Amino acid sequence: MEQFFRVGTVVMVHTQPHRRDSPRFRSTLRGWRLQQHLILDRPRDNNGAYAVLEERSPCVIRYLRDGKACAFESQILSWEKHRSSPYLRIRWPHDLTFSTFRKHERVPLKLACTVVRQDGLKTTEELWDLSAAGCRLFSRHICGEGTLLNLNIDLPDGVRLSNLAACVRNVHDMSGGFSLGCEFLDGQEISRNDLVFFVTTTLSRRRTEMAAEHHLPTILVLDQNTEVFERLRAQILGFDMDAVWAANVVDGFYRLRMLGPTALAVHQELPSVDALSVCRAIREVEGYEQLPIFVYGGDPATIPQRARDAGASGWFPTSASLPDDLAMSLASQVASVSHKNRKTSE
Q1: What does the alpha-carbon distance between residue 38 and residue 30 come to, in Å, rounded to a whole number?
Q2: Helices within 147-225 (DSSP H only)
Q3: Of 35, 124, 245, 340, whose CB count within 10 A is highest?
Q4: Residues 234-240: contacts with CB under 8 Å, at least 24 apart
Q5: Is the pLDDT of residue 266 over 50?
Q6: Backbone φ, ψ for residue 327 (5° rounding)
């Protein structure tokens, strides 16, 4: 894994990663101790003061390396004992997610975008597509080539791009308005990092979604064990359902937003956060109050009730017959919960 690290790499430290609009800080990788921890510059807030961080709290690190958008889950270690130190230690990652990106590969979108022109005019336009290099807007206001714009965009993954500087490179007349082809200006490394990660992960997810059978109810499975997932999916298909895999919480939350599954199954023991924290975080997001969430694994004496208190719809034990039993129970309970939700909506 260390081949994907390089001293001096600019990274984004995403604290409270399971909450929308949670803090993100720019930092730099300064070194590491193999299999133990990585050393970063201590992040600073917008006022230049050291950012307030919590010991043992989860975080997500994003960065670009050799044409790849990389990300991993980690944990903030005990920096509070050394408040005068300019460095921060984070836990060595269990795994690394990365996607190869091409600068001009575009994601089709339909998002509201706040545009501030160089003459001070502020309007809300529609974002039609997005790449690491630029975007296309639909505007009802005439705009000449060479016009400088500042864009503010809320991406579907929860990232907010603020004051993203762009230049209009081409303009085409359309029915009811104009199509503006915009190029992002250089020197915006933090925004570019978020852009590349969003574009590459979105394209990867959409390729998976296109290959999936969307007419089937789909269960998103959050578990590191690929063998368990493959066996679980094989069983679920027999119940006229499908399953999609996510290996970590970063991937899981992204697929949850982009795929809109029928239900979520979460293994209790994940690398940086337990399933109960995942349940609580999802229940706080508008639109996911009724999503069936099933937890499996953990201590049968304590986890079932704690899982329900955290917002889970049910709990299953692990056993030698997992995932056969889990698939049957999931199919039954998803059908039951889905039927109950339909009755409620009627």
Answers
A1: 8
A2: 189-211
A3: 245
A4: 235/323, 235/324, 235/326, 235/327, 235/328, 236/327, 236/330, 236/331, 238/327, 239/327, 239/328, 239/331, 240/216
A5: yes
A6: -60, -45
